[in-house]
Design goal:
Elements: E1 33-37, H1 44-54, E2 58-60, E3 64-65, E4 80-81, H2 84-92, E5 96-102, E6 105-110, H3 111-119, E7 123-127, H4 130-140, E8 144-150, H5 154-163, H6 169-182, E9 191-194, H7 198-213, H8 222-236
Helix pairs in contact: 1-7, 5-6
């Protein structure tokens, strides 16, 4: 799921509005790729889970990784855990949309489930790092929108890293040392959210998703709909 922090009706969630995709102007639209990145510990995984819970028409892209599972992680749900040889074979076979090494482990996005979801008109959430975003940006074009999550302060970031109690002291220090470099990538993203308040940040992600769904190029039946309005207006005039 996360890079080290990843259909049918809908219901309101996180205190914000939602858009029922099936009620957009007619015609099957292509799904969009919503990418969320952040320095480790900034909250992107928790935010992604909250967004998925309140957006039933959003599906998660499950990354493959060579990293060993953490306590409580489920293969195929949080990640697909593979060994280095299998990962290398996936890269060689063109099975990954993007791949990168993050904190000493390899991560990648399986191509087939994403392409199938987009073609079916489903939106896909990606929890990947800036390296993956750069690779996707080169090929995804207008299919992709990227959001960068910033922590409110380095002190708060350190508190979150330590409070989750998943990493050794050495790992925590290493990740904190990477923050100065990680945050320099924010200009490469379409939107930036400073995660000061969790619920506010979730609503911000919802607003991005809903706004992108309403872009005219993502409503394939819009031209025909407007022409129908014009014909009806002429008949009534």
């Amino acid at each position: 799921m996360a890079r080290d922090e990843a259909t049918g009706g809908a219901a309101a969630g996180a205190g914000g509005p939602w858009i029922e995709v099936g009620r957009l102007v007619g015609g099957r639209r292509r799904g969009l790729m919503l990418v969320v990145s952040s320095p480790s510990g900034a909250g992107k995984t928790s935010l992604s889970r909250a967004l998925l819970a309140c957006e039933p028409e959003l599906t998660l892209s499950v990354s493959v990784t060579t990293r060993p599972p953490r306590p409580g992680e489920v293969d195929g749900v949080d990640y697909r855990f593979v060994d280095a040889a299998r990962f290398a074979a996936m890269v060689e076979g063109g099975e990954l949309l993007e791949h990168a090494e993050v904190y000493g482990h390899r991560y990648g996005t399986p191509r087939r489930p994403v392409e199938e979801a987009l073609a079916a008109g489903r939106d896909v959430l990606f929890d990947i790092d800036w390296q993956g975003v750069q690779q996707l940006r080169a090929t995804a074009g207008e299919d992709m929108v990227a959001v960068f999550i910033l922590p409110p302060s380095v002190a708060e970031l350190e508190r979150r890293l330590r409070s989750r109690a998943q990493d050794s002291e050495e790992t925590v220090r290493y990740r904190l040392a990477q923050v100065a470099s990680d945050v320099t990538h924010w200009p490469e993203y379409d939107y930036v959210i400073v995660n000061r308040d969790f619920e506010t940040s979730v609503r911000g992600l919802q607003a991005v998703l809903n706004g992108e769904r309403l872009r005219r190029q993502r409503q394939p039946g819009l031209t025909a709909f407007v022409e129908g309005l014009r014909r009806d207006a002429r008949r009534r005039s």
